[in-house]
Amino acid sequence: MAAPSNKKRKIFAAVCIVIAVSLATLLVLKHFTGNKIYALESTGIADVSQITLISHRGMSSVAPENTLEAAEQAAAYGYTHIEFDIRQTKDGVWVVLHDDSINRTTNGSGKISNLTYKQIFEYRVDEIDGKSFYIPSLSEMLNLCNNLGLHPVIEIKQEGTDFITQLVQSVGYIVSECTFITFDREQTEMISEILSSGEKSLTHENTELYWLVKDLSDQTLETAKSDTLIGVSFKGNKAGTPDEIKKFTDAGLPLATWTIDSPERLAELYALGITTFTTNIIAPKAVPEVTTDEVTRDGRR
Q1: Which of 269, 241, 257 is nearest to 43 (CA)?
Q2: What is the pTM of this model?
Q3: Residue range(s) defining the domain that contains residue 224
Q4: Mind listing the pLDDT tens digit for each residue in 86-117?
Q5: Is 130 buried (19+), middle (13-18) or exposed (0-12) by CB count in 10 A?
Q6: What is the spatial distance between Cα 211 and Cα 167, in angstroms, rounded to a whole number?
Q7: Which residues pair with 209 in a beta bridge?
Q8: Which residues of the chain register pLDDT less than 70?
Q9: How many Å from the N-terminal Cα to the C-terminal Cα in the chain?
């Protein structure tokens, strides 16, 4: 029997690679989520060019939340914006993590405020097929956003305001534009003052700022009106009637919403004038781009 030609071997190898990638993707999807990923076009909106989709904690439906891999997946699914949470370690390093402890998301335990960055890096978020996932530092995530062309949406989980000036300055050293979001109104007001001062590289021209709220009550409106440079991002699956939204837009307040995972609800809010949505599973593209290029990160990979 004649040996297979080089052409046939190449075709066979290519088919094997495609099968391997497909199986790996299925394993990751099975591992992280049972949720379906919806393409933005599934909303039925004719013109989606004005819509901004923000990937919640990265593409956490196919990779561990708030990891560099989740950011890479967000870019692969066509997102231009990625949301992630930040907290400070015992030794003052900003890390990307939602909870105040590492208990839920890693194989370790302890509060972030009681652990040094070196200690935190020793633990792993997960491991699949020999590939480790870890809690990244803020600077790592911002540098990766630069490499991937992602706009970082930074949710401040740390309590207090003593660190705000240093945080805004350090973020401005790495990125030329970003968004800050927080539930703490005092934090938003302090950031707004810094952005207005013109003393830092981040200003209101290149930085968006949103106060996170659970409702669009009259009390929320009165507080929000004190600084219309601070937008309002509300819990869109619980609040956001036509009358509520109109009151805020009439006051000149930028509106965004979190966390919208229903294409029908997204379309409903879009019809009311909302164009910015944080979401887990509604993506610009239903199928990710597959590439052999790998982003290098200081030799850690």
Answers
A1: 269
A2: 0.86
A3: 36-283
A4: 999 999 999 999 999 999 999 999 999 999 99
A5: exposed
A6: 17
A7: 180
A8: 1-34, 290-301
A9: 44
